[in-house]
Give the backbone structure.
Amino acid sequence: MFLITLIVALPAAGIIINSGMNLREEAIRDARRETQKLAESIAAEQQGLVIAARQLITALAQLPDVRKQNTARVQPVLKDILALHAQYSNIFMADRSGLVWATAVPVKPPFIISDRRYFRNALASGQLSSGEFIVSRATGRPSFNLAYPQKNERGAVSGTICVGFIPDSFKPVLERSKLPPGASYMLLDHNGVVMSSAMNSKKYVGKQLDLGLFKRMQEGADADTLAILDLDGVERIITYRKLRLAGEESPYMYIRAGLPVDVVLSSANKSLWYNLTLYTSFLVLAFFIASVIGKRSIADRVTLLETASRDLADGDLQVRISDLVVGGELGSLGRTFDHMADQLAAREKALVESERNYREIFNASKDAIFVHDAESGNIVEANKTVEEMFGYTREELLHQTVQKISSGEPPYSLEEARQWIQKAFQGGTQSFEWLSRRKSGELFWVEVLLSTTRIGGEGRVLAVLRDITDRKHAEEEKEKLQSQLVQSQK
């Protein structure tokens, strides 16, 4: 009887262990996806900041007072702009020698930047150039700067317009991600110097990352996910992303997002040990009953157990094996199967709840989110904000092309949309502006963040849209006012 009990019990033990190992593997996969999403979110935020800074610099470069280096008139404008943008540490302008002649943050003269990487590269390349981690001479705090060459009325480079960023401005992105305790990110400059870290910031900011870890990112792909032993001796699953400026060969920033492996596996390990402990208790009970009762007629009960187990394997989680086979070691095994069925039912319920939570988060986003089929480009999913923004119901949009929600005229037609999708596959996340059309026929502007992913094993394109019509109108009004200002100064 002991042998029969053991033979019957071993498959259940194997199922529990295999289930536990599958849970661990799934937890690792989930952690990889979560770190990838966090890295992508920070990358998208940074790319948005660069785009905004480029637009700001371009606008400032057109002002006559800037071209004339009129400190008295330009400096108050810079202060007002800085007050409206918490992510900027400073906005300043320097002549060709590196002497700053206008700054939003007051600095005791002389304020010289001729030794800064962003200044030298901007003059040498003639285009938007990146800097590196520095402690700002203006604010005394960590900063990362971009610079753009300023040209005078004759078209000659007369200096630079510079924008400084606060590296720690990305911490809200981590907070919004709702990741488990221990989740962290790290921003590195082109030399591997830590510019911002959610992990022991005071210890690592301004320090060089371990050369072995940094070299692994330098020599790796533009984006990758891997397991490492981190600086603090904790094993982590990390995803890194490289960011580049147009015209610069090497990345100007490395983004790292990570989760501790022990935190990732904590729930799966607890579940595995709980199941094994519970199963062991039932197994001990079964051996005890077998030793006390002895051999009894088992053939019919085994047949019933076989039938009920088959029903369970076929997905009938309502079957109660212990009701069919009562007493003895087979009864104990029946109760174990019932417990497994309850766990499977609970897991199915958890999966349904998880899907519901995902749908609620998906629909709660203030941005319109489309999911497109990677091959055809057709819409396969859309959130509630899409319905509000475009006036269509989700059902009306499914399996439609981008043409239905676009202006339809080049460069905002289906052909250009497919070109952007191709760019996303070849070059990673794409950010651009798009002229869209509501169901009512009204045209409006959106900012699009386009990235590729895989959902359910299928290639998908994720498009996140934000209505920027008001911003476009404000920019047009600003250009109009600037034009009027120029006219009034003639």
Remarks:
- DSSP finds 15 helices and 16 strands in the chain.
- The first strand starts at residue 88 and ends at 95.
- Residues 224 and 239 are 6 Å apart (CA to CA).
